[in-house]
Design a protein that fits this description.
Elements (H helix, E strand, L loop, with lengths): L4 H8 L3 H9 L6 H14 L5 H6 L6 E6 L5 H16 L3 E6 L4 H13 L4 E4 L6 H9 L4 E4 L9 E5 L1 H15 L4 E6 L2 H16 L9 E4 L3 H12 L7 E4 L2 H13 L9 E6 L3 H4 L5 E4 L2 H16 L7 E4 L2 E3 L12
Parallel strand pairs: 1-2, 1-3, 3-4, 4-5, 5-11, 6-7, 6-8, 8-9, 9-10
Antiparallel strand pairs: 10-12
Helix pairs in contact: 1-2, 1-3, 5-13, 8-9, 10-11
């Protein structure tokens, strides 16, 4: 039989109210008594009921995290950092991978609310704004990371995706490339990276070629498929900007199958600067997103909401292009 709060109180020689104060970290009790109660809880393997806490209107100290794809190294790292920050603040994190499925996302939000989480962080691209609007009207704490929704007043932490796209394209233009293609996924963040690409091309007075712009899934297979289409053009690109590192790996795979060497025959730049960027050969130039800072700030914003703070913030952090060995000037290419 599972131990109860009554068992803990009896073994510790204190009242049920004192045990409750220790569990919820409230009230004024001595450190000696607190440690005594905690020791008994450990001995009895007592686990406070999260549901019971929720029913009494107390915090459950759990946060929901929705990400689009746990297989994507960027979101895997982001999840770990969110969990680390949550633990530092005394919150457990329940993670759900949505596979970019809108229906799945709605089901997970419903499930997390049923589980009485204190708030939800959404890292998925979420187009059902009515659901989010409903959560806001309920004053349910939510925050966005790696995305923002301009039409809704929601706390968010993002990187400047437009600037990141501009930086990559400007760098390739400065190397001397004019045949620069871009492969992006259908996500608001990637659309902004594509806008930065277009702006840099326009600022350099280079011809804008629509057939150099491809949209795909954020997967190795998606990058592979789009790269092959680009290679079959009458004038194939000399450089490809992949809007995440998974897509970049797919581009490199397609290039190798055609005996194209990186960067001798083709320059490639990724985005996210995941661990894969340093593992591929040659090491991949990629845009660094400050994942640690983004994760820390989004958890802090959500916790403040949980604690009752009314103000809302949109935090935009700066990206950084990390140059490695996957690019070179076109005149030096074979």
């Amino acid at each position: 039989m599972k131990p109860t709060i009554y068992d803990v109180a009896r073994e510790a020689g204190v009242s049920i109210a004192t045990v409750s104060k220790v569990i919820n970290n409230t009230g004024r009790i001595s450190e000696k008594t607190r440690q005594k109660v905690l020791k008994v809880m450990k001995q009895l393997d007592y686990q406070p009921s999260i549901l019971a806490s929720a029913l009494t209107g107390k915090h459950t100290y759990t946060i929901g995290l929705l990400i689009p794809d746990i297989a994507n190294p960027f979101f895997a790292e982001l999840s770990r950092r969110v969990e680390d920050r949550g633990q530092e603040l005394g919150f457990s994190v329940v993670m759900c991978s949505t596979d970019n499925d809108p229906d799945k996302t709605v089901r997970y939000i419903t499930l997390l609310k049923q589980k009485s989480v204190d708030g939800i962080i959404l890292a998925s691209s979420f187009e059902n704004h009515q659901v989010l609007k409903g959560l806001l009207e309920e004053n349910f704490p939510i925050a966005l990371i790696s995305q923002e929704i301009p039409s809704l007043a929601i706390d968010s932490v993002t990187v400047d995706d437009f600037l990141g796209g501009y930086q990559v394209t400007e760098y390739l233009l400065q190397l001397g490339h004019q045949k620069i293609a871009i492969v992006a996924e259908k996500a608001p963040s990637n659309q902004k990276r594509m806008d930065g690409y277009r702006k840099a091309i326009a600022d350099a007075n280079v011809e804008m070629k629509e057939n150099y712009m491809a949209i795909t899934q954020a997967t190795v297979e998606g990058g592979y498929h789009c790269a092959n289409q680009l290679f079959d053009l009458p004038e194939p690109p000399t450089a490809i900007f992949a809007c995440n590192d998974l897509i970049a790996i797919g581009v490199i795979k397609a290039a190798r199958e055609r005996n194209l060497k990186i960067p001798n025959d083709l320059s490639v730049v990724g985005f996210d600067n995941t661990f894969m960027a340093e593992m591929v050969d040659p090491p991949l130039s990629s845009v660094q997103q400050p994942i640690c800072e983004m994760s820390r700030q989004v958890v802090d914003l959500l916790v403040k909401k949980i604690q009752g703070e009314k103000s809302r913030k949109r935090v935009v952090l700066l990206p950084e292009l990390v140059v490695r060995k996957s690019t070179m000037p076109p005149e030096e290419q074979q």
